[in-house]
Amino acid sequence: MEKFVRLEGLVAPLDRSNVDTDAIIPKQFLKSIKRSGFGPNAFDEWRYMDVGQPGQDCSLRPKNPNFVLNQPRYQGAEVLLTRANFGCGSSREHAPWALLDFGFKAIIAESFADIFFNNCFKNGILPIVLPAAEIEALVQLVEAAPGYKLVVDLPGQVVVRPDGHAIPFQIDAFRKECLLNGWDDIGLTLRHAEKIKEFEAKRRVEQPWLFS
Amino acid sequence: MAKTLYDKLWENHVVHQEADGTALLYIDRHLVHEVTSPQAFEGLKLAGRKPWRVSSIVSTPDHNTPTDHWDEGIKDPISRQQVETLDANIREVGALAYFPFKDPRMGILHVVGPENGATLPGMTVVCGDSHTSTHGAFACMAHGIGTSEVEHVLATQCLLQKKSRTMLIAVEGKLGKGVTAKDVALAIIGTIGTAGGTGYAVEFGGSAIRSLSMEGRMTLCNMAIEGGARLGFVAVDDTTIDYLKGRPFSPTGETWDRAVAYWRTLHSDAGAQFDRVVTLKAEDIRPQVTWGTSPEMVVPVDAVVPDPAREADPVKREGMERALHYMGLNPNTPISQIAIDKVFIGSCTNSRIEDLREAASVLKGRHVAANVKLALAVPGSGLVKRQAEAEGLDKVFVAAGFEWREPGCSMCLAMNADRLEPGERCASTSNRNFEGRQGPGGRTHLVSPAMAAAAAIAGRFADVRDVL
Ligand code: SF4
Fold first, then answer.
1. Smaller CB count within 10 Å for chain A: N or C?
2. Residue of A17, A85, A172 lying closest to B20 (CB–CB)
3. Can you tell me the distance from the alpha carbon of B108 to that of B112, in angstroms, rounded to the nearest whole number?
4. How many CA atoms, within 13 angstroms, populate the side-chain half-sphere of residue B373?
5. Tens digits of residue pLDDT in A32-73
6. B415 ligand 1 Cβ < 6 A
C-alpha cells in the first residue's frame, strides 16, 4: 500500500449527500477479477451519456457536460469534497479502487458509511470527517475559486485552507500509523500468529461446534 | 456489571488489543462469493500465503448466475469467468462447503448459510457483501467486509476492529394483519434515517421482534445496513434454537446440548446500558412503500408522495427533488395511484420460504394485471425452491402469471440478465432503491412480498390489508 503523509491537492466538490457505492462504481464493472482499471468507470452513470459496459474505450464515450467532475477546472483533482453518508450501500472495495484510480487520495465528508470508510484505509485513501459548517464553507470557497487547493497534513491531523485557516480532524492512532507507513494489515496481524493459534486451540475445546 | 449482547459477542472473540482499542477479532465463519473474492485469492497467492482455516469457508456463486435456461450455462463471458474463477480458487484451497453453479443447494449466501446450519449463534460471520448483517438474526456478530479484508480473513482468520457504540431498537406490541418484518425494517429506516445506525451495533428487541420467525428476523437484520449499521442482531430464544435443530451443519448429541447451554446466554442482561435507544410501537406500523432513491425515503401505502416544498433543510430538499425527478413522480400523488411495470419477489431480504408463502397467499386465485410486463419469483436457494415446489407454491405463482425462476441474486442488483429497462417501475422485495440498482434508469420501490403480490394484481401499489 502507498504511504499517505501530506498532500497538497486540487479539490473537486460533489455537492450531495448519500452518494452510494452503486453510483461510485456501477455493478456491471464488478465482474472484473482485477483490482485496477476502474477509474474510467468511476461515477459511470453520472459521467457519461450512454450506458457503460465493461471493456469499452471510455475516451470515445459521450460525456455528461453537467457532471461536476467532467468540468475542465476539476481535472487532476486529488481531494474529493462531499456531504453526509458518503459511500453508503454495498461493501464493494471496487468503490475505493475506482476513486483511487480516478486520482483521489483524500475524501472529505460530513460522514461516511462504515464499510466504505474502512475500505479506504486498506487502500491508502484518507477519509476525513469534518463538521457540516466547515464543509459548507469549503464548498462555497471551492466553487468560487478555480484551482482551489487544500493541504491535508496527516501527522498534524489538519486540513489547511489557502487562507491559512486550519481545520483539525480525528483519526484512530492505529490507522494513522498504518497510513503513514504504508503498512500491510496482514503482515501486521501475522506478528500475532502465535496468539491466534492459542486462541483457536482454546476455542476448539470450549466451543467445538464452531469447528465442524 | 450487566452486559449487552454485543459486549458478550465482542469479548468472546478478542484475540489481541492495541493501545487505542483496535482489536484483533477471531472470525468463525467466512462466506465467499464470486464477485468480491477473486482479488483476495490472487493477493494471497501473490504474497505466497495460505488460508488459515479453510473449514471456516462456506461458498457459492450467487450475484452473477442466471435464473433461467440453466441448461445453457452462463452466457455472459465475463460473468462466467468470475464464477469459474471461484470454482478454481475453492478447488485449490478447499472449504467446509461449496455449492457450485447448479448445485441443488446453491443460492444466495445469506439464505444458504442459515438454512444449512452454517450460521450458528455467537459466531462472527463475515462476507464480502454488506448484507451479511442478515446472520445477526442468530445473535451473531455478522457484517460485510471489503476485498482487502476478505484476504485478511483468509490469511489470518482475524479482522482488525474497533468496538462500536450500541443501539437498542425496540419494537413493542403486536404487528397488525398484513404487516411484516420488511415493513418493520423500512419503518425503522424511515425513523432513524439511512445513516442513523452508522457507527452503531444495533440490537433489535421488544415483543414484536421476539414474535417474529427466524425468516422475519433475517429480513430485519438484512436491512440493518440500509439504516447505516454494519451489525444488527437479535437475542437467542426458543425460536432460534428450534430453527437450528437438525440442520446439516448444526451440532448433534452432547455437543448440541453444550452449544444450546451457551447459546441461551446470548442476550443482553437486564439493566444493560445502550448508547442509544429507539422505541417503535408495532401498532403504528403500516405496510410501507419507498418513493425515492434511498431506503429512508419511505411512507405507508395509504400516504402520498412527500412534497419537497415542505422540507426546511435545503440539502435534504434538493435530495428529495432529485429523487422525485429520477423516479418520475410528482409530490402529493397518492402511493396507491402509482402504476408499475415489473414485480420482483426475491433477494436475500425476502426470498425465503415464508416470504414465498406470504406472496402466494395473496396471489392465490388471482392474476397479475395487464399492465405488468414481467413478474418474477426467484427463490433464495435451491432448497427454498424445492420446499416451495413441494408445497405447490410454484403453481400458484405461475397460475397468477409470474415466472418461476432458479435461485440467485437476480434482479436485486441486475448483474445477470434480469433487469429493469430505463424508466421502468418495479415493486421489489429487495433492499436497495438506489439509482440504477435494478438496471440503468430503472425505478425501484421497496415493499414486502405480500405488498409486491398485491401490487402485481392491482398493477399499481395497493394496500395488502384490503385483499387479505
Ligand atoms: S440478493 Fe441482492 S443484496 Fe442480497 S447478496 Fe444478492 S445482490 Fe446483495
1. C
2. A172
3. 6
4. 11
5. 888 889 999 999 999 999 999 998 999 999 999 999 999 999
6. no
Cell representation of residue A115: 464499510
Structure confidence at residue A212 (pLDDT): 75
Mutate one of B41, B49, B78, B222 to test the A interface: name it (highest A CB count within 10 A): B78
Whole-number average pLDDT of chain B: 97
Q: How many CB atoms lie within 10 A of CB B321?
A: 14
Write out pLDDT tens, residues A141-198.
999 999 999 999 999 999 999 999 999 999 999 999 999 999 988 989 999 999 999 9
Which residues of chain B make contact with A193, given a CB cutoff of 8 A? Answer: 156
Give the Cα separation of A170 and A172 in Å (integer): 7
Is A202 at the interface with chain B, CB within 8 A? no
Nearest to B25 by CA among B171, B201, B255: B201
For chain A, give me the number of helices (H) and strands (E)?
Answer: 8, 7
Q: How far is A18 from A88, CA to CA, in rounded Å?
A: 6
Instruction: Look at residue B20 in the predicted model and tell me its pLDDT.
Output: 87
Q: Could you tell me how many helices (H) and strands (E) chain B has, helices first?
A: 15, 19
**How large is the greatest C-alpha to C-alpha distance in chain B, in angstroms?**
64
This prediction's pTM? 0.94
Q: How far, in Å, CA of B226 to CA of A166, rounded? A: 34
Terminal Cα distance for chain B, rounded: 48
Contact A119 B146 (CB under 8 A): yes
Quote the CA–CA distance of B202 and B166 in Å, as a whole number: 6
- pLDDT above 90 covers a percentage of chain B that reads 96
